[in-house]
Amino acid sequence: MPFDPALAEAALAYLMETAPVLVLRLDAQGRVVAANERSRKVLGAEVLGRTLAEVVVDFTSAPDLVASGSHDQSERLLSLNTVSGLPESFLFRFLALPDGTLALGSPDFDEQARLQSELLGLTRELNNLTRQLHQSNAELRELNQLKNQFLGMAAHDLRKPVGVIMTYSEFVLDEAGPELPAEHRKFLQTCLAAATGMKRLIDDFLDVAVIESGKLGLELAPATAAEIVAAAAEIGRLVAKKKQILLVVAPADGTRRLGVDAAKLQQVVLNLLGNAVEHSQPGQRVWLSSQWEDQSLTFAVRDEGPGLKPETQARLFQPFAQGGTRKTAGERSVGLGLLITRKIVEAHGGRVWVESIAGQGATFRFALPVPPQPVTPPLA
After folding, report:
1. 77 falls in which pLDDT band (50, 70, 90)?
2. Looking at the domain assignment, is residue 24 inside a domain?
3. What is the pTM of this model?
4. 310-353: per-residue pLDDT in tens?
5. What's 378's DSSP letter?
6. Is residue 122 part of a domain?
């Protein structure tokens, strides 16, 4: 077939602009002086001016091969650094030129087929693991539901006998306390304190069981900050008085109303007050306040206790989290009170957080969003 310049020019244009092969022209030192479009896409435009040793991964024979001027016509499998950051393998032939070398690289289809087969195998394995994970998650959900049912039933059944112990202990102390020996009074007081602590734990477990079952219903009704604060402060003062702690309550707004579950928010405030009292020393103070802002109503409980370290604050509202500081009267807790607090506040669309410096007390706050349409009180 006679030489056709037009055909040769078209073939060269195809190689340089379209062909899915690498075409690299190297000078006598093995430096890339020209590259086709495919090479620039795979290796990057900065391939020009680099030596072959800089482009190839773990390939030491090519630079020596080029420098010596001896060119082997056999194919060589080379792995190249690509712009994707991952090496790719190509089968190369090196052709001698008067002033250097022409390196022609084609994709290693056998290697690609192997990688594709491995990828399909990994995909099948991942699908199997995904199915197993879905099955395990379904089993865990079922076990969690059974756990919640058992927890709720157990806590509910324990509440009544514990209440009986508390009632009769208080009755005996009130009626016959002055006539009993000091040692016997101490025994009764210990029984009452233990039963009181147990009832608190039972109530917490019941609340958690309800929350985890997804049945934390809110009975929304119009209420003021003053009503919530007053109801919580009445009980809070009794709790604080037992430890000789002064509860300071700031005046709260009694005019603006917000649609909330007042009973559950009172529980939130009492949880925070109880937490503050438990970490305070006799003679210290605890403050309770509330403040309306443009888009929220914020409650705050501040104490003069030991404060919290940053790492403790980060996990404070998680299940079974402990504050990291010893309660001043040795009160027992399983770390559910603040979890319940967070869940109730979040059910109202609000958020709860703590501000504290170790050794300087702590301030717990929770904010409730103000709805676009305020709840109006029912007509009398």
Report:
1. confident
2. yes
3. 0.51
4. 878 777 877 655 555 555 444 545 467 788 888 889 889 999 99
5. P
6. no
CATH number for the domain that contains residue 327:
3.30.565.10
- Say yes or no: 254 and 361 in one domain: yes
Question: Do 157 and 237 fall within a single domain?
Answer: no
* 190-206 pLDDT, tens digit each: 887 777 777 777 776 66
Around 366, how many Cα atoms within 13 Å sit in the side-chain half-sphere? 28
Q: CB under 8 Å to 351, separation ≥6 — which residues? A: 345, 366, 367
- Chain position carrying tokens 């037992």: 242
Provide mean pLDDT across the span 352-379: 76
Residues 260 and 359 in one domain: yes
Question: Got the DSSP string for 120-133?
Answer: HHHHHHHHHHHHHH
Residue ranges of alpha helices (H) inside 109-177 are 109-176
The two three-digit tokens of residue 176, written as one number: 């016959």
- Measured distance CA(356)–CA(195) in Å, rounded: 32
Q: How far apart are the first and last CA of the chain?
A: 108
355 and 296 inside one domain = yes
Is residue 374 domain-resident?
Answer: no
- Sign of the dihedral defined by the CA atoms of residues 335, 340, 346, 350, in that order: negative
Token pair, residue 320, equals: 């079974």
